[in-house]
Amino acid sequence: MTWWRQPVQPLDENARAVAQARQRQLTKPAGSLGRLEKAAVELAAMQGRARPGIAHPWIAVFAGDHGVVEEGVSAYPQAVTGQMLGNFVSGGAAISVLARHLGATLEVVDLGTIDASLELPGVRHLHLGPGTANFARTPAMSAAQLEAALQAGADSVARAVATGGDLFIGGEMGIGNTTAASALACALLGCPARELVGPGTGLDDAGVLHKAAVIERALLLHAGQLDDPLAGLRCLGGFELAALAGAYLACAQRGVPALVDGFICTVAALCAVRIEPACRDWLLFAHCGAEPGHRLLLAALRAEPLLELGLRLGEGSGAALAVPLLQLACRLHGEMATFAEAAVAERQP
Ligand SMILES: Cc1cc2ncn([C@H]3O[C@H](COP(=O)(O)O)[C@@H](O)[C@H]3O)c2cc1C
Ligand SMILES: O=C(O)c1cccnc1
């Protein structure tokens, strides 16, 4: 049996019940801390303790290039993917700043960019290929590439666990990946491209229409393959999308909470949930971004994200921004006084 079909860890329902009971005793009107209460209770069930916490966030940015860029679907040149790898490790990218602020580990995994000889200190280069093939003409990747990319995600989770990581954040970098993610989302949701496609890095209206047309053509080309989430990922996805899906599946198997970032990561999360529905239990959702399809995906996953800031960056940035909020949710849950402790009168019967 392939590793991603192995069972996922169950949540700790006892810890959840104890955490829920504690929430009702804290000195505030019941429910008044909204989603922060739910997040603390969810984390309690994931961590198997009544008072959860996040001490060591692990951030892995997965990068890959996309053959579909030759169709003219991104506002930026393809060389940006490889160039940003250097920026991640030298500390100048948005996610670098956020990781520094959080004291989080930042791992950068290059699955395969157009510069096949690229070697940067501090980057893990896997060289699965010079990016994916153009999925408007042919399947994006081979079965072997798909398997290696899924494994790369699982390997990152293994490193997170080995070094005491208690929250997994996946990020992505790959010029053209909103096109791949949108195509995969169309396949998974059974919805036409025009309903979820967006500007990505900044296409104008005509560019968005062209991007939707490229996706519609690809959906017709691969129509026979798209009922199976793994086949959809192979035909339409990207190396970094597959690594993210593999990472979310591995998080569920190892019992590590995963905080999902933006549109692209949410497509990978939906793909992972279609591969193994029980992996949904281990996912937390950081934000709803500006890409129009993000909201549809979150609804399909029954997700209530913590933030809505109009973000459209990726890299794991939205998830990193939500970490302090999750940490505060845990501290409120763990440190607030109960009505009895503070001698505060409870709700009238
Ligand atoms: C400098 C720069 C840094 C980025 N960091 C993340 N992305 C984001 O934009 C890309 C997807 O958008 P599209 O599909 O329109 O190409 C991805 O690389 C994503 O992570 C960036 C994009 C740029 C230009
Ligand atoms: O929401 C995202 O993940 C996103 C949106 C636009 C460009 N890059 C990433």
Automatic annotation (TrEMBL):
In the UniProt entry, which residues are flagged as the active site? 315 (proton acceptor)
Q: Name one GO biological process term.
A: cobalamin biosynthetic process
A GO molecular function annotation here is: nicotinate-nucleotide-dimethylbenzimidazole phosphoribosyltransferase activity
Q: Which reaction does it catalyse?
A: 5,6-dimethylbenzimidazole + nicotinate beta-D-ribonucleotide = alpha-ribazole 5'-phosphate + nicotinate + H(+)
Which Gene3D superfamilies does this one have? 1.10.1610.10, 3.40.50.10210
> Which Pfam families did the record assign?
DBI_PRT (PF02277)
Write the record's keywords in alphabetical order, separated by commas. Answer: Cobalamin biosynthesis, Glycosyltransferase, Transferase
Question: What SUPFAM superfamilies does the entry give?
Answer: Nicotinate mononucleotide:5,6-dimethylbenzimidazole phosphoribosyltransferase (CobT)
Annotated pathway: Nucleoside biosynthesis; alpha-ribazole biosynthesis; alpha-ribazole from 5,6-dimethylbenzimidazole: step 1/2
Question: What top-level class of enzyme does the UniProt entry assign?
Answer: transferase
Source organism, top-level taxon: Bacteria
Enzyme Commission code(s) on record: 2.4.2.21
Q: Which family does it belong to?
A: Belongs to the CobT family.
Q: Tell me, in a sentence or two, what this protein's role is.
A: Catalyzes the synthesis of alpha-ribazole-5'-phosphate from nicotinate mononucleotide (NAMN) and 5,6-dimethylbenzimidazole (DMB).
Record-given protein name = Nicotinate-nucleotide--dimethylbenzimidazole phosphoribosyltransferase
**Which organism's genome codes for this protein?**
Zestomonas carbonaria
